[in-house]
Amino acid sequence: MKNFIELNHPLISHDLGIMRDKDSSPAIFRQALKRITYQLFITATQELNTKDLMVETPLAVTKEKSVVGDIWLIPVLRAGLGMVDACWDIYPDARVGVIGLYRDEKTLMPQPYYQNLPTFKALDTCFIIDPMLATGGSALAAIEFVKQKGAQTISLLALISAPEGLKIVHDAHPDVRLVSAKVDEKLNQVGYIVPGLGDAGDRIFGS
Ligand code: PRP
Ligand code: URA
Question: What is the pTM of this model?
């Protein structure tokens, strides 16, 4: 699939083992999520816009790069909040906008309840972050919100994706770069990812 990357690394599998375990505590779950998010964000930022920067070391003048435009992290509430810190560790100047959505348990349709997004500038890069991409409804809504605000360069970072949701999002927005740590087997009849890890928000927040 074009514009899609699935991470494949032994440490991802190690941490997914921790996160999938139904007996892992919220603290252990959050730590593993943070470690995987480092890899997701590093991978997703590989093609960032940069400009040349001349820098004087104590020994010589050399050329490096500096990031052009603002980097925006857009966590989808609630569970996306669990990925913000890891991205900030890697790029502390990242700005944050938020989108509040929950899935209606019966229809599985995303219900928007809060938004705090800027009007994006041409050189800005947006990273929508949410651990779970299941039916794809929440991701579609989030992408549409950021596009309405002018975002032109968008990546979606998901810890675990269902093949069904991934295809829907990719078909609707082939310009959006999708980065997922793992594509799982399928969705079950009530829209949960199998084998998955259960409700990501509940597991992060202990609710
Ligand atoms: C979860 C998850 C995604 C959404 C994915 O959020 O964090 O946002 O479900 O499902 P979808 O692809 O079928 O739309 P949830 O609705 O459980 O809200 P929460 O994070 O507040 O618990
Ligand atoms: N949201 C979750 O948190 N988990 C799933 O498996 C599907 C949607």
Answer: 0.97
